[in-house]
Amino acid sequence: MEHNMQPGQKLARGVARHLRSLGFASLEEFVPTRGLRVDVIALGPKGEIWVIECKSSRADFQSDNKWEGYLDWCDRYFWAVDLAFPTELLPDETGLIIADDYDAELVRMGPEDKLPPARRKKLLQKFAMDAARRLQVLRDPRPGRDGLLLQAAGATGAGEDTF
């Protein structure tokens, strides 16, 4: 699996490992709302929500024109980059995490801008649902069609699934 990971995915793994050591639970490639997909969203031990965007190169950062839209979906925002990344490109008013494939270090805390309660509730529900679905797919990669239980083949005498 590791050989198929993109550089940003490797950074995300290192970030997730570090966040776990801080008591956070995280999800990668999370969609807070239509049209936005964050690299890592993390739920902290006090209910705080962080968004971390992983940038593997200068070109990757410069082509990202959606990041400011992510600020409305978290209490704190961070960039995660490797040691070779030119960090002077990153806005000072954002958090900074230096990461590699296996771990990370929080270098600069992102400023806190607390989510409105209604948005926090919606985001927490989506986080929980996405996490539960991902876990279920790991445990049962072949669920019933459209959420319905499939009858055993031959139970109807026709050998086809019926509903």
Fold and architecture overview:
The chain is of the alpha/beta class and 163 residues long. The chain is 29% helix and 21% strand. It is built from four helices and six strands. The chain has helices at 7-21, 58-62, 67-70, 117-139; strands at residues 25-30, 38-43, 49-54, 76-81, 95-99, 104-108. The longest helix is centred in the last third of the chain and has 23 residues, at 117-139. The protein is globular and about 50 Å long. The two termini are 38 Å apart.
How helix-rich are the residues, as a percent range?
A: 25-40%
pLDDT averaged residue by residue: 87
**Shape from CA axes?**
globular
Strand content: 15-25%
SSE succession: HEEEHHEEEH
Number of strands: 6
Characterize the quaternary organization of these chains.
Answer: single chain
User: Low-confidence parts, pLDDT < 50 over ≥5 residues?
Assistant: 153-163
Category from helices, strands and their pairing: alpha/beta
CA gyration radius, whole angstroms? 19 Å
Total DSSP helices: 4
Distance between the termini: 38 Å
Strand order of the largest sheet: 1-2-3-4-5-6
Largest sheet: 6 strands, mixed
